[in-house]
Design goal:
The chain has about 280 residues and is α/β, with parallel strands linked by helices. It is about 50% helix and about 15% strand.
């Protein structure tokens, strides 16, 4: 039996992935910041619930060691834990900016660095990093989130070259809009002293709600993650969701500026009209 360690397994994509792998005979180390609150995954066979905060190095090491102690080895790590700040960059606090990068970028690096000695010793292993459509496509009001996901895309692609000779694979799963509470749980960047962005943010968010009609269920994303972990290929990127496919195709069919102009006209047309 193979073993996977999943971060952010308390809800959403992480929880769906834990259920998917367990149902297919894998040992699962389902990690989360508050394991005492988990009531569903703990009922499944071959699932270890462990505390892991991607900002806490000791908790990462302890979760990895607990998994090895119970299951003997770890074959795959799924870096899924994530967080989003919504709003104009200028409105974000220092704490929001730091948390956005601490969780989405440094958290992924912390977990990856902690598991690599185990993988190198085995001369095998797979690191799967969940990025987003927002790792290669951008939308208004998500500049901080996009910055972190673009960073993980670049980190993962280069890391894949570095680890190839060690027998370790790196894979990227790029989910589109998914039916979870991820956006609802986002941190909103606000600053009452700055009102210049109010109309822009209102228009951008209202427009996004209208065009966000291709949400995927978490099970669809979990299926793509499972494929990435089990297809025995050296494929790097896996698109997950019809909207991901739509936006990636849009970006590739014309020039870069044509794509940017299309997104401006789609999401913030009033801004362009006001400047004419």
């Amino acid at each position: 039996m193979k073993t996977i360690l999943i971060t952010g397994a308390s809800s959403g994509i992480g929880k769906a992935a834990a259920i998917k792998f367990a149902a297919n005979g894998w040992n699962v180390i389902a990690t989360m910041r508050s394991p005492e609150k988990e009531t569903e995954l703990s009922l499944l066979q071959n699932v270890l619930i462990a505390k892991l905060d991607v900002q806490d190095i000791d908790s990462i090491k302890q979760a990895i060691q607990s998994g090895i102690d119970k299951f003997g080895t770890i074959d795959t790590v799924l870096n899924n834990a994530g967080y989003m700040v919504i709003g104009a960059f200028e409105l974000a606090t220092d704490e929001q900016i730091h948390n956005q990068f601490d969780i989405n970028v440094f958290g992924v690096m912390n977990v990856t660095r902690a598991i690599l000695p185990h993988f190198r010793n085995n001369q095998s292993g797979t690191v799967i990093n969940v990025t987003s459509t927002g790792g290669r496509i951008t939308f208004p009001t998500c500049s901080l989130y996009h910055a972190t996901k673009f960073a993980i895309e670049g980190f993962s692609e280069s890391l894949a070259y570095e680890l190839l000779a060690q027998g370790i694979k790196v894979k990227i799963v790029e989910p589109g809009s998914t039916a979870t509470n991820f956006v609802a749980a986002a941190s909103l960047a606000t600053n009452p002293a700055i009102t210049a962005y109010d109309d822009f943010i209102k228009q951008a968010l209202e427009t996004y709600v209208k065009v966000d009609t291709m949400q995927s269920e978490v099970g669809v994303i979990a299926e793509v993650i499972y494929t990435a972990a089990t297809d025995d290929s050296d494929q790097l990127r896996y698109m997950a969701g019809k909207d991901t496919e739509k936006y990636f195709e849009l970006r590739q069919t014309g020039t870069d500026q044509e794509y940017v102009d299309h997104m401006r006209e789609s999401f913030i047309p009033g801004v362009l009209d006001a400047r004419k």
